[in-house]
Amino acid sequence: MSLLVVGSIAFDTIQTPRGRAERVLGGSASYFSVVASHFTSPRLVGVVGEDFPEEHIATFKKHNIPLEGLERKPGNTFFWEGEYHADLNSRTTKAIQLGVFEHFTPVLPASYRDSKYVFLANSSPETQAGVLDQMDNPELVVADTMDFWIQSQKDALLKLLPRLDGLMLNDSEAMLLSGETNLVRAGHAVRAMGPKFVILKKGEHGAMLFSDDGVFVVPAYPTAKVEDPTGAGDSFAGGIMACLAVDGTHLHGRLRRAMAYGTVVASLTVEDFGLSRLINTSRAEIDHRLQAYREMLSF
User: Fold this and answer.
1) Nearest in space to 200 (alpha carbons), one of 154, 271, 145
2) 3-class secondary structure, 233
3) Among 160, 157, 112, 110, which residue's Cα sits nearest to residue 138?
4) Residues near 53 by Cβ (< 8 Å), separated by ≥ 6?
5) Does residue 179 contact residue 148 with C-beta atoms inside 8 Å?
6) How many CA atoms lie within 13 A of 113 on its CB side?
7) Is residue 109 pLDDT above 70, yes or no?
8) Mind listing the pLDDT tens digit for each residue in 82-102?
């Protein structure tokens, strides 16, 4: 099944207690599409500037990621710099330069409009709705959001939610959106706003799924080698959506399996800076780790 992702492509400068990486390839669409490429050939829609190097284009091509939806515009590529604190759970943003991403209005290539699986990475709910307006007849639409949009464009977000099959957000964002202080109540409350299922990301504490099947909880994969948490959430989304796109069984039967795949690829992401670990992994390694994860959860 065709899988579409619309999101950011960026340069990231990352400082963690484990080291530093300068202007590495990042952005939500980059992490998502590289993960998804181990399952299928994802359609990427994003924008870069004149400073975007051919080596990164080559990375996308190496992973069989079609680039018909990649726009190059005059100006600089989105840049983010952040420093993670000692626990690697919190970080300080040192610099943001939106560049060409600031005024990016996605226009889908005609050949992408029939995509059946659609992931709307973190952006304005108005932008996300604009992408949906261009789609023919998608089977599954999932979006990500964050506290900034909940606070600044809540009305637009509430209007978008009934158009979604799934919504991903972290635990504090779910409580902010719902007004609930209990995470379980928050998950149910957000789902009542329109999406068929809601996935709450809890970082090193795993994730929670709220759907017709009830509540499902997965722990994070226990990796001792955490170098850089950047992109873990986007990788998690990429694993989930790619698994759903290639698995033809009923949605509610495969959501749990998809969350396990998302958890596993997120654990790989954090083991090196930027996209390095994802670029150098394989589907066989992902499946091997999934089997180990399954055995950990058996009792």
Assistant:
1) 145
2) helix
3) 112
4) none
5) no
6) 10
7) yes
8) 999 998 888 999 999 999 999
**pLDDT, tens only, 5-56:** 999 999 999 999 999 999 999 999 999 999 999 999 999 999 999 999 999 9
- Candidates 255, 155, 274; CA nearest to 214 is 255
pLDDT, tens digit (0-9, with 9 covering 90-100), for 263-291: 999 999 999 999 999 999 999 999 999 99
Mean per-residue pLDDT for 163-191?
Answer: 96
- Full-model pTM: 0.95
Rg (CA), the chain: 18
- Is the CA virtual torsion 118, 106, 228, 205 positive or negative? negative
Q: Hey, what domains does the chain have and what are their CATH numbers? A: 3-297 (3.40.1190.20)
CA of residue 51 relative to chain centroid, distance: 24
Which positions ≥6 away from 119 have C-beta within 8 Å? 3, 4, 5, 6, 7, 32, 142, 143, 144, 237, 238, 241
